[in-house]
């Protein structure tokens, strides 16, 4: 028989974020321009956080570019949240740097036209122009 003892310490750092399979980072370059960087796996468990972040960005006045280059898996529900946010923004939210995992899902959903900006450099140049 094996027994285990669990000891909880108040002074330990919460490591729950260290085990995440995804990341959502908001980078504000100016009051008028924000980049949302997504990385990792976006499945059903990440949908609420993604939609909350997109809603927060939509409530502001800044143009937002969403970097999809680090996404390794994209659940169709998460893709639909991005598609809806892009449509609802009337051009203020753009999606850029899609990789194959993202392109396949957007193509299947009939939204490949939203992936017209290939890199961060081209997103930045078109914003600065």
UniProtKB/TrEMBL annotation:
<feature type="domain" description="STAS">
    <location>
        <begin position="31"/>
        <end position="129"/>
    </location>
</feature>
<protein>
    <submittedName>
        <fullName>Anti-anti-sigma factor</fullName>
    </submittedName>
</protein>
<dbReference type="InterPro" id="IPR036513">
    <property type="entry name" value="STAS_dom_sf"/>
</dbReference>
<dbReference type="Pfam" id="PF13466">
    <property type="entry name" value="STAS_2"/>
</dbReference>
<dbReference type="InterPro" id="IPR002645">
    <property type="entry name" value="STAS_dom"/>
</dbReference>
<dbReference type="InterPro" id="IPR058548">
    <property type="entry name" value="MlaB-like_STAS"/>
</dbReference>
